[in-house]
Amino acid sequence: MPSQGRGQRCSGSGQRFKVKTAVAQGKSAPNFSPLTSGVRLSIMTTDNRVADVNRPHAPRNPATIRAMAKRQDIDALLKAWKYEPGEVVARVVGAGDGRQVVQMRIEMGLLQMEVHNRPDGTRPHNCATYFDYLKQRQALEEGSLVLTPEQCQEADREFTQYYHRRMCWLALREFDKAVLDADHTLAFMDFVRDHSPEEEWTMVHEQYRPFVLFHRAQAGALAKLETIGPDAAITELNASLAQFRDLFEEFEMSERYDEDELVTRLQGLKESIREHYQVGRTLTEQLNDAVAAEDYELAAKLRDEMSRREAANN
């Protein structure tokens, strides 16, 4: 047996873990095997997060185990809903109390998420989301809030939850809902960037901003295509591409903009919409052309037409 406080490395499913053991002192042991009843165990991942595994085991009576298996396993559900490697498999179902939940099939089970507010259904510190809680904390601070390690960890949990649900909404073609979740993530990314404890932690998150912007651009354009029309979808994509260009300029990588894979895909989506719906230059594109050519009379007429159409759509 390892000495007290000493860690061991073990590997499983491609991820390395550090297993820490310590002899319990003056405390009653959980319901473990007699051989390990005096040992407390925790699993530490390579990012130094510790998972306590000292909860009592389930009763070991065979009859009890069989009875619990009948009530608690999800074998039938998993067999009826196949996992498809490389695909986002999602659905919306009714829960027992009548509310709707969204589910994602994963390789060894499923994720179930609420459709509103925070996906896990919790209210951190009685707020709708952890982002809302941190904004509340910032409002009460005399100076600028600097995130603690615990707050950074909780922020990461919320990012992960919104990522999973956003992927579900995209797979289900619920584009308006995907936009809402992407906007939440982007606003939260802005917040943690401004209140980050260190540059390294900031950059770990900023590297995912193009990916979230890409989801937001796709969902926003397709939502506009469904509700307004192809001109609005192309205008939405042009606005998103402008955001991408600004991002590349911010990080002094303008020369890589045209060859970026996400930019290329958005350009391809725009041209496919233009070709499929036989859309020429949109009013916004014509306006930009007129301003560039200093044809201000034409620009004024185009603005009037854009205002008229916007009022009609509202």
Question: What's the structural blueprint in terms of helices and strands?
Answer:
Layout: E1 7-12, E2 15-23, E3 39-45, E4 50-52, H1 62-72, H2 75-80, E5 89-94, E6 100-106, E7 109-114, H3 130-140, H4 149-171, H5 175-194, H6 199-206, H7 209-227, H8 230-250, H9 261-276, H10 283-292, H11 296-313
Antiparallel strand pairs: 1-2, 2-3, 3-4, 5-6, 6-7
Helix pairs in contact: 4-5, 5-7, 7-8, 7-9, 8-9, 10-11
Structural summary, described in words:
The protein contains eleven helices and seven strands. The protein is 52% helix and 14% strand. The protein has 314 residues and is an alpha+beta fold. The relative contact order is 0.05. The longest helix is centred in the middle third of the chain and has 23 residues. Helix 5 packs antiparallel against helix 7, helix 7 packs parallel to helix 9 and helix 10 packs antiparallel against helix 11. A hairpin with a 5-residue loop joins strand 5 and strand 6. It folds into two domains: 46 residues, no CATH class; 204 residues, no CATH class. The chain is globular and about 85 Å long. The termini are far apart. Strands 1-2-3-4 form a four-stranded antiparallel beta sheet, with no helix packed on it. Strands 5-6-7 form a three-stranded antiparallel beta sheet, covered by helices on one side.
